[in-house]
Structures are given as structure tokens and as C-alpha cells.
Amino acid sequence: MKSTFVIQRYVPGKDAAPHFERYELDLWDEATILDGLNYIKDNEDDSLSYRRACRHAICGSCAMVVNGYTKLVCTTPIASELKSGRSEIRIAPLRAMKPIKDLVVDMSAFWQHFRDVEPWLQPDEAAVPGPNEEYRVTPEQIAASRKDLNCILCAVCFSDCGVVEVDPHFPGPPALAKAHRYVMDPRDDKRKERLQRLVDLGVWDCAHAYNCMECPKHVDPAHAIAELRRLSIEAGITGNIGAKHSQQFTKSIGRGGRLDETRLVLELTGITNVAGQIRNAPQGTRMLLKGKLPLPMHQKVDNPKEVHRIFKAVNAGQQADNQKDGNVQVTSGSGR
Amino acid sequence: MKYAYFTGCVAKGTCPELHHSTVALAKVLGIELWEMTDASCCGAGVIHDENPELQITLNARTFAMAEAAGMDIVNICSTCQQNLGHDNRVLRENPALLDRVNRVLADSGLHYSGNVQVKNLLWVLVSDYGIERLKEKVVHPLTGLRVAPYYGCQLLRPVEDTGFEDPDNPTSFDELILALGATPVDYPGKTRCCGFHILTVNENTSTKMAVKRLEEARDAAADIMATPCPLCHTSLDAYQPRAARMQGSGVRMPVLHVSQLVGLACGIDPGVLKLGQLMVSPQAALSGVL
């Protein structure tokens, strides 16, 4: 099967800027993109640099951006990239990290985010069994961390995250999934401290774009992030803009069935925060002049009382559940 | 064709032009809309962050109302699509949960059996209505207009909740633009996030994301962008002057709603489509086709 690889080449210090080079290949039908890169390195240009090792999605080394989306090239067939009429395969290094050479990037920032979430068990020392005993955890107890444990640290989700792309402070999906793994571990004794730390690091800065759901190991970081947020509110960590936004939003729906955006922005800025309100005034005025502020009254649904009743009924049901086991529990894990 | 029309909050709030242009377009195309004036917010993932069961129950109420009326739901927002789609899937796959939710709905005289489909307007136009039929309604082809289709993120992912097309290589919007006689523009950010969902939580990062998308479309020589989602529209249009100033960008890119873009090609008056309510005027960009 014929294909054209267009590969980003760059040697810092030697090349003024990254540039793309074309390679024409004719490989077997089932060849992967990694096979193509190996072919080029073996036969056409041995200076081409890229990371690879295991060739079957275990080591997590060969993540790169293929036609705009980050993938493990060892499990991506050339054929799948050429379907839907695409004529070439464009390969660039992982995003949000500095290129070292060609397709190899400096992953220091990626690892720093992992260090920041303290990815090791911090148990209550008094509860830790002696050296001759196991510290046992049942499969049921570890189920909530099961997906997080599949992470191979490949940085596919990190590279595709739209927030990571512009904000170097955001921990990114993989470090947050790793943090979730420890928050959910029954042996860990630092849940509240961890949640507070994650709020400080930016767990509320995730923009819900779900790019991280295309994980080659199905880790599901978006679900982990949603659950960390819920648990942080549950733990009483609510003095931050993310939790306030979530709580005020939900309250707004409870009042009228529909979101009152104008009131939400006013409340989140703080009614008595004069400087903040002044800062928002030009935007508010622009929207007012365009007829984008629904005045004088926010439009509610026909029967806001029915919506309010559902709020009360769901809360009552959940409170009853907390007092007895065996009911259907709905958690953030319900598919998200 | 008849649908239960789920407006969502924003088309009834800060994006009224979306609602008005949708209603006008549906009329011209002969699509009947029953507006769900009693449907609550989809939860936007925000209620889900705090209490997933509450969001699912509120959305089950919406599905039950559409089911009772015997209609599928059409929505005009990617976040509504994603959240309604997700909650609908979870309810359909989980009979015990559906049962629990129905016990709450029973006191409102409602019941959901899991038979409603949730579709974004873009999908309805491309798939249910059909490109060929749409072409017949185009009386004012937008020849020469370079349109950057902004698919955004939540209409495409997660695949199990949306599932309409390949999120890495979507084509529906491009097909729609071609049907209107305009030219779709390819650009790197068409499926990446506009930052809306953190606009109030982290405005600096959010506006950086929006400006990046706008500049990507500009650099691909687009005359305008178009979006199927009022939240993307808020980030990209309503906040564009503020975002550009915050990020030191000179970008100026008109952004139309899908309903406005299709409406123009179908000969609907720009005043009826409320183009005047766009923050960044599309007048100069559209001068060649209007």
C-alpha cells in the first residue's frame, strides 16, 4: 500500500525552525505508522528521531500527533489514517512540550504535574500492618481506581487537551487521573488534603472538551476530574470559584428551571465586589446594547415548582440511601 | 417532520438571535417545532459535577415530556446535545436507574420508557432533512463565501454519547456549507475547545483558547466562522472584543449560528435572522453574497 508521510523535522540550534519533510512509502497493507517510521529510519534517513519501544501499547513511548490528533503510532494502522480520502499522513511531535529533536519532546513539564499530585500512597501509619502482613484491598474497594491504574503515561491526552495547550499551570488529564487513583484508594489517609491540593492546582480549570476520552488504554480522565470536583464539594472545599460556579449554577436551575446567566455572573463576581462589577461593566453594556441581556426578567420554565420538587425528591432519596445500603447509586462514573 | 424543540437556556437568555433564527429557518424548511417551554436546563455537566443523579432525573423529565408527545428532541446547543445524549444513554443502559428515576417522575404524572432520540439541529439538517432536500431550498447560494465550520468539542466527544460522526475527521458541517454554495475552510482548531466552560472560572485561559480558534480560522483565510452551539458562540462572538483585548490579539472574525447561515442561503431576511445581534458585525464579510 502506497502512502506519503509528511514528518516534522527539527534540530534545535541547527535548524532555524521546525519544517516538514515528505517520504513516499510502499508497505504491506497492515503496516502501522510506527512501521512506516521504522522503514524510513532503516532505509531512507537514519537521522530521524522518535521514541518507541514495545510496539504494542504497553510502554507508552510512541505518542505523537497524527493528522491533528495525538495517537500511539504503534497501534495506528496507516490504512486507518488514509480512509476518508486523506492523501497523506502528517506527523508532528506531542503538543505543549518543547521539541528536543524531530519527534522527541522534553517531557519534564508532564512529569512535574505528576510530582505535584504526590502519586504515592500516604496511609495512616498506625493502620499500616506489620512487615509480615499484607495490606489487603478487595477488588470492590479498588474498583473506583481501576481505570486510572491502566494509565501508561503516554501523554496522548495531555497533548490533545485544549487547556494544557494554552495554560502550563493546568495539571492536565493524566496527572488528575493519577490523583483520582489515590483519592479513591481506601488505604490512603490524605483524601481531604489531596482534594484541597487539586483544587489549588486547578481541577476546576478542565473545560469539559472530552479530548482525553480518546485514551488508548480507556483511562477516562474526564470522569476522574468530574468525580474529584464532586468529592471536593462533598469535603466542604467550596471557597473557590469552581465550586461556587457549580453550586450557584445548580441553585439557579432549582429556582427557575433554566439558567439565569446574568444573575450567575453577578453572583460569582460578588454583588459587593465593586471593582469586579466595574471590570465586567463594559462586557455587560455591550451585551445589553445588542439585546443580549433578557430584561427585565429571566425566562423560567412553565412549571418551576415541578423542577423544584425534583430537586427535593432526588435529595431526599439520596439522604435515605445514605442511611441504608443496596440501592442504585449514581456516581460520576455512570459512563462519563 | 416534527420535533420536540429543546431551546436550552442560552438561546432563551443571552443568545436570543439563535432561537429566533432557528424558528424562522424551521418554518421555511417545513420542519414543525413544538417548543418545550417546560423543559429544564440540561445541567451542562455542571449539575453533573455536583450531583449526577439530579441532572439525570431532570433530563429524564424532559425525555418523558417528549416521549408523551411522541417526538424526538432537536436541540441547538452542543452542550445540550452532549449532556442530554449522555444521560439518555445511561438511562437506556441501566433499567434499575430508569426505574428509580421514574419513581420520582411519577409524582409529576410522567414516565420515561427510553424511546426518545436526541439530535442537534446540524445533524437534523444533514441527516433527517437531508443535503439534497436542503439544496432545493437554497434560493440564495453563498457563492464565494469562505466559511470556517466550528464543530467544537462536545458535539463530537465522547463518541459513545454523541456518535454521529468520526470526531477526528468530521464532515457534516462541511457538507452543509457546500450545500449552501459556500466554501468550507479547513483549519486546525475546528474540533478543539472554545474555552466556554471555564469562562467564569478562569477567564484568562478561556479567552486564550477562544482567541486561538479565531486566529486559526483567520489564518486559514475564512471570511466568517459558523457554529452549532450558543456557548461556543458566546466565547467566540459575544466575548470576542474582550478576549482579543485581554490576549493582545487584533483578530476580528464574524461568527454566525448554523441557523443564521442556512437561513441566509434559504433567502430569509437578515433582520429576521437577527444578524444585528452579533457582537462582531458580519456585514463586510457578507457584502459579496447579500
Overall description:
- The complex is a heterodimer of chains A (336) and B (290).
- By secondary structure, chain A is an alpha+beta fold.
- The model of chain A has no long low-confidence stretch (mean pLDDT 93).
- In chain A, 40% of the residues lie in helices and 11% in strands.
- In chain A, the strands form 2 sheets. Chain A has a 5-stranded mixed β-sheet with strand order 2-1-5-3-4.
- Chain A folds into 3 domains: 2-104, Ubiquitin-like (UB roll), CATH 3.10.20.30; 108-234, Alpha-helical ferredoxin (Fumarate Reductase Iron-sulfur Protein, Chain B, domain 2), CATH 1.10.1060.10; 256-323, no CATH class.
- Chain A is built from 13 helices and 7 strands.
- Chain A has helices at residues 33-43, 78-82, 108-116, 139-142, 156-160, 162-166, 173-183, 191-201, 221-234, 241-256, 261-269, 274-289, 304-323; strands spanning 2-9, 19-26, 63-66, 69-72, 88-92, 98-101, 104-106.
- In chain A, a hairpin with a 2-residue loop joins strand 3 (63-66) and strand 4 (69-72).
- The radius of gyration of chain A is 25 Å and the shape is globular.
- Chain B folds into 2 domains: 2-119, Glutathione S-transferase Yfyf (Class Pi), Chain A, domain 2 (Up-down Bundle); 131-286, 3-Layer(aba) Sandwich (Rossmann fold), CATH 3.40.50.
- Chain B contains 12 helices and 8 strands.
- Chain B has helices at residues 16-29, 46-50, 52-69, 78-93, 95-106, 121-137, 172-179, 203-219, 230-238, 240-246, 258-265, 283-286, and strands at 2-6, 32-35, 73-75, 118-120, 146-149, 183-184, 224-227, 255-257.
- In chain B, the strands form 2 sheets. A 4-stranded parallel β-sheet of chain B has the order 2-1-3-4, with helices on both faces. Chain B has a 4-stranded parallel β-sheet with strand order 6-5-7-8, sandwiched between helices.
- The longest helix of chain B has 18 residues, at 52-69.
- The chains are: A alpha+beta (336), B alpha/beta (290).
- At the A-B interface, helix 6, helix 9, helix 10, helix 11 and helix 12 of A face helix 2, helix 3, helix 4, helix 5 and helix 8 of B.
